[in-house]
Specification:
The protein is α/β, with parallel strands linked by helices. It has 12 helices and 13 strands.
């Protein structure tokens, strides 16, 4: 990288699927937004490539053809089109790519060096192991390196904790927030709440078609009594749910690459009880900001201990490790390892 610190021309390529920042669910879009805005704040010249309803303090560009639900309806096609258009849109010193299915475009690019963030690990990445990848957790980095990928390092996802108000006065409800996918374990959260006889709020948008069968079989029949679906939430409403929950449940069934829900909950001073999968032990300080458990029965027992957790300790962990500023520092440090035509 030859440009001087503070004057780089940077492309942040978010996805063409969900607006950046997202209104509700959209982890990669939230990270792309936070990165773009912090880079602008530091004086970089940032172009955010995203959906036309996105917003940024930098320059926003979008491509109507990548939004098409016609010949390019497949998400992978749309990502490839989106990234190719972005790479051709201008001269950049650096590209931060968040379109994982579009990595073949970077294999052919001969312009700016690029870093691709592994929000997940689709099989296509193994076809292009020599590109430069950023893992979002140490656990993910280990898996990717064992698959032969060139992982330059780890940049934990970060948020701006300032809008979250820490309160030790909690309401008596459990919170699960995410999307209605079996990986995210909403049915397990229901099982825990029912075992304890406690109120549970499920915050998620309506399930897309590929998740509807799971929702109808495992979630909808249990939406009664003290189990309530509150729909998708965003902004202040989302923050208030985190702030007043007794704890947040995170019963994931997969090797979670990161899990911003855990960080958002801790920013609000609310402990997290989560399964020991993927990044979870890196994010939660077990016994200090929540509990890391192995099954639903242990999760139920841990919920009964959440009054032992100090709300201020939860917030301090976020401020120490999971802020947008810390995330951006790490991305820039990794970018400094790239040559003028890396990848």
């Amino acid at each position: 990288m030859q440009a001087q610190q503070g004057s780089w021309r940077i492309a942040v390529v978010s996805t063409p699927h969900i607006k950046t920042p997202p209104a509700g669910f959209g982890g990669s879009e939230q990270v792309a937004s936070g990165l773009a805005e912090e880079l602008v704040r530091r004086g970089h010249r940032v172009t955010l490539f995203a959906t036309p309803d996105s917003h940024t303090a930098g320059v926003l560009q979008s491509f109507p053809s990548a939004q098409s639900r016609g010949p390019y309806a497949d998400p992978g096609y749309r990502e490839v089109l989106h990234l190719c258009r972005a790479l051709a849109a201008g001269d950049f010193d650096l590209v931060f790519n968040h379109c994982l299915k579009a990595v073949p475009a970077l294999a052919l690019a001969r312009g700016a060096p690029a870093l691709t963030t592994m929000h997940y690990q689709p099989p296509i990445l193994t076809e292009f192991p020599g590109l430069s990848y950023v893992a979002v957790s140490q656990h993910q980095a280990g898996l990717a390196r064992r698959a032969g990928l060139n992982v330059l390092g780890v940049a934990h996802n970060g948020i701006d904790p300032a809008p979250y108000q820490v309160t030790s006065q909690k309401d008596d409800y459990l919170l699960w927030i995410g999307r209605f996918h079996t990986y995210k374990g909403p049915d397990l959260a229901i099982r825990v709440a029912q075992r304890l006889g406690m109120r549970l709020l499920l915050a998620a948008p309506p399930p897309p078609e590929d998740q509807r069968d799971f929702f109808e079989a495992e979630v909808r029949p249990r939406l009664r009594g003290r189990i309530a679906w509150v729909g998708g939430v965003e902004g202040a409403e989302k923050r208030r749910l985190f702030e007043h929950a007794r704890c947040t449940l995170f019963p994931v069934r997969w090797e979670e690459p990161f899990g911003l829900v855990m960080v958002e909950s801790m920013a609000a001073g609310t402990p997290v009880v989560a399964f020991r999968r993927g990044s979870v032990p890196e994010i939660i300080a077990d016994g200090e900001t929540g509990f890391v458990v192995d099954d639903a029965e242990a999760m139920a027992r841990a919920v009964c201990r959440t009054d032992e957790i100090d709300a201020a300790a939860c917030r301090r962990r976020v401020e120490a490790h999971f802020t947008t500023a810390a995330m951006t520092d790490r991305y820039l440090a990794l970018a400094a390892q790239l040559g003028p035509a890396d990848g």
